[in-house]
Amino acid sequence: MSVANNHSLKIEDYALIGNTITGALVGNNGSIDWFCAPRIDSAACFAALLGDRENGHWQIAPVGGSRAARRRYRPDTLILETEFETSGGCARITDFMVMNGHDSEERCHLVRIVEGVRGTVDMEMALVIRFYYGSTVPWVRRVHDARLAVAGPDSLYLTATIPVHGKGQTTVARFTLTTGQREVFQLSYQPTHHAACAPPEPFAALAHTEAWWRAWTARGHYEGPWRDVVRRSLITLKALACRSTGAIAAALTTSLPEQLGGARNWDYRYCWLRDATFTLWSLLTTGYTEEATAWREWLLRAVAGNPADLQIVYGVAGERWIGEREIPWLRGYEGAAPVRVGNAAADQFQIDVYGELMDSLHLARSVGLHPQAHVWDIQCAIMTFLETHWHLPDDGIWEVRGGRQHFTHSKVMAWVAFDRAVKDATDYGLKGPVACWERIRDDIHADVCAHGFNAAKNSFTQYYGGETVDASLLMMALVGFLPATDPRIVGTVRAIQTDLMEGGFVLRYRTENARDGLQPGEGVFLPCSFWLVDNLVLLGRRAEAEQLFTRLVALCNDVGLLSEEYDPGAQRLVGNFPQAFTHVALVNSARNLAGDGPAAHRSRNHARCQEAATRR
């Protein structure tokens, strides 16, 4: 069949649908090439994105292809509409995941409504189910008018308003659409040991799902510049959230490469602590207090325990063991191997996460989201651990695999931890060794200024005694370590613009000269490029900030989604997709440009840093 081709779509050719438990990627060719069920971090049953068509996909498209395809989300929803123009007419596919009480952490329903818009269009469908990341062929049998695919613990149940049949190890169908004709396909997941449940009535489910998303979007109150792209980013963040746990996954996917054909391919279907403060800011400043509270509560559950065991990344329910392994039977996106599941970064020591945790809890208190009393006991235990560990080398924010260093950003975030501990104790009357914390805070500040700053380069450097810069240094002003106007920060921003810009955007660091234990080469890092926008705002260079922000927004695909990185040479999105951290950074930069974002707030809230910097 013509739909079963091996054409590899660009990352930006995909759109997201989801139910705030899991999600799927729908290509502009009508093919769903990535779908994990029932959770976002479950094994994929459609894995063509990282392999070939036989690793699982579900395509509905015109026979012989189309002359043109266009798509959009229904306003303020995650309901996707794709229209295909052919020589005989036009057909529309409406794709969504049900949100009406029929979905749960063990069940989900994916609905595809195919409609004739104009003329006559011959359509065909091909469904290839391969459980466990494209490796397991299910047993498929007819149950009444449906098809049930079963393998081990997993089952998918297909219903359709037209006849379907098996051909080889594929379920197929052909049908002709006329104007106004509608056909419906539903695919429902449930564990094999559960009794089968009937899928929801599709049009009622569509109406309820649309109303649900519109009601959620209406809760937001952002009405500033770039309103549409900010709203789309917030909807994307909600789609990547787990409604039962409050967690927000970093991305929907694993192993989309940071460089086309490269080996920097990681599993991002987990939750990183370093995203905490920025995520809270993006939610709180746009009216989503409920989601911010749920995210804060997830953080507290995840980090509870021995501070020495604090991880940088957890599963969406707070799972600690997410061991990394390779999936050799998948060739990788456009051949970028290996494909990895799990993430070994969970075993790394990264000092910056202690600062992120303390900063996020300080932010929560400052806006009235006061945690329960025992949380301060957890924070004090964390600070006791950090008192004797802040001076150690670590693996750094970028999770390098080439050995530990005294990374400047890590020390800055240790300073943040002590600074926020002092502020929480003094501002909210909480008991703690404030004098000790103040002394350590000042010691760290002096240590960073003495060893992390290169006078000859007039810039802070990636690690102590180094000569190269790192985009994480853009965080120094954003967390209040030094004012953005401090000559050392001005020099650092200048050095980053000189040494780390490619195609007008910001690299994390120069991988060709780095001791990170990995092959060199990756795209520009989009969150860091937004951090540069924020620094330019604080420096009063508004025209430059707006220009860079506008160029970044222009990288969004046709339905407003961004990945982690961008390849300026190939002019393509790279890295896992859609990327929560990128969309968080977009929202925060938009608010910063509007004058009421986190950069301005932190600048005011930590104005005493100016006095401390003057003393030094």
Write the layout of secondary structure elements.
Blueprint: E1 14-18, E2 23-27, E3 31-36, E4 44-46, E5 57-62, E6 68-73, E7 80-85, E8 89-97, E9 108-128, H1 131-134, E10 139-143, E11 146-151, E12 154-160, E13 165-167, E14 170-178, E15 182-191, H2 202-218, H3 227-239, E16 271-272, H4 276-284, H5 289-303, E17 313-314, E18 325-326, E19 340-341, H6 352-366, H7 374-387, H8 408-428, H9 434-451, E20 453-454, E21 459-460, H10 475-478, H11 487-499, E22 501-502, E23 505-506, E24 524-525, H12 526-538, H13 542-553, E25 565-567, E26 572-574, H14 580-594, H15 598-605, H16 608-615
Antiparallel strand pairs: 1-2, 2-3, 3-4, 3-5, 5-9, 6-7, 7-8, 8-9, 9-14, 9-15, 10-11, 11-12, 12-15, 13-14, 16-17, 18-19, 20-21, 22-23, 24-25, 25-26
Helix pairs in contact: 3-14, 4-5, 4-6, 4-14, 6-8, 7-8, 8-9, 12-13, 12-14, 13-14
